[in-house]
């Protein structure tokens, strides 16, 4: 690799070399315990977690080859080379041009390093591992082990430095949500309050987020995962606001609801249920409790109030480092039925109980929390009450 003289190794790295070296050492031990010699890491979250490389350009092929007994090497597109140098302390790069076949580059590198007969694994569930790439690698290498979940299992418990970044992200969400709620008023549209939300969060320091705000107005709030679409708020309309903020790729999220004028009785009942269900989930969180138990605590409140048919989802999901198309780590760990993983200090979750009347309204409230030694600590500061706009 020929390094551009104006770019210094690691000049934009968001973690010190010691933290990343510790993560790599843990990943190597986990790979060895799983029976693998080398892992081809393709997921942008796992790559960032291990070596610090981050770019919106992960839609093109990139791969970290991580041996258990040698230094990692990163396969990178030429356009991303200086980006990689700046973000990471890894100096062993295999750079390819746009005219090259990245599979050939990967296979030739494995052969040249004498790794052809090693037990090579890949994450078969990787979001950004195209089927064609996987099939071509398998054809050329003969076999590939499945290392799905090996790196993700290490990401669940956050280090003190990671928790600092998550707390900073939560402060951006606070700024955005405060501005968004203030912009919920008759005559404004959902575009107006989303612009206020995102503008304030970005002004506070947020980077680009892994997913757009889930924010909508009027009857469109009753659509799951509805987004803004130029809907003007009128008297009697609901507003739904859910957003994330990002600091060094670490995300925190928050959900709040508002109403122009007096809400109908059913909406108030659902909102009160969500408030109580959230608190029940928070009260259940402590080390040693299973993820399923937290979900059950939330679900019990919803069932008691008769809204079971309106709540057909998990109670919460892990938060941490994310790239589009998601702001969470729900693929790693969730609060849901059958998830028996016990909670440990340093785990972080977004808990968003919401109830809706499809095509009419949604009400909900959420918190991003970190598991502590004796319970949990919420990261946001925005009041949870339904905002009523006169």
Rg calc: 23 Å
Strand order within the widest beta sheet: 4-3-2-1-5-6
How many DSSP-defined strands? 17
- Helical proportion? 25-40%
Main sheet record: 6 strands, mixed
Averaged pLDDT = 96
Total DSSP helices: 10
SSE string, helices as H and strands as E? HEHEEHEHEHEHHHEEEHHEEEEEEEE
- Report the portion of residues in β strands: 15-25%
What low-confidence regions span 5 or more consecutive residues with pLDDT below 50?
none
Structural class: alpha+beta
The backbone outline, from C-alpha atoms, is: elongated
N-to-C terminal Cα separation, in Å?
63 Å
In terms of topology, how is this protein built?
Blueprint: H1 17-33, E1 38-41, H2 44-51, E2 63-67, E3 73-77, H3 81-87, E4 93-96, H4 102-112, E5 120-122, H5 131-141, E6 145-146, H6 152-155, H7 160-182, H8 190-204, E7 216-217, E8 238-247, E9 250-260, H9 265-284, H10 291-304, E10 316-318, E11 334-335, E12 348-351, E13 354-357, E14 361-364, E15 367-371, E16 376-378, E17 387-389
Parallel strand pairs: 1-5, 3-4, 5-6, 9-17
Antiparallel strand pairs: 1-2, 2-3, 7-8, 8-9, 10-11, 10-12, 12-15, 13-14, 15-16
Can you walk through the features of this model?
The protein is α+β, with helices and mostly antiparallel strands and 390 residues long. It is 33% helix and 19% strand. The protein contains ten helices and 17 strands. A six-stranded mixed sheet has the order 4-3-2-1-5-6. Strands 11-10-12-15-16 form a five-stranded antiparallel sheet. Strands 7-8-9-17 form a four-stranded mixed sheet. Helix 7 (160-182) packs antiparallel against helix 8. The radius of gyration is 23 Å and the shape is elongated. It starts with 16 loop residues before the first helix and ends with a strand. The model has no long low-confidence stretch (mean pLDDT 96).
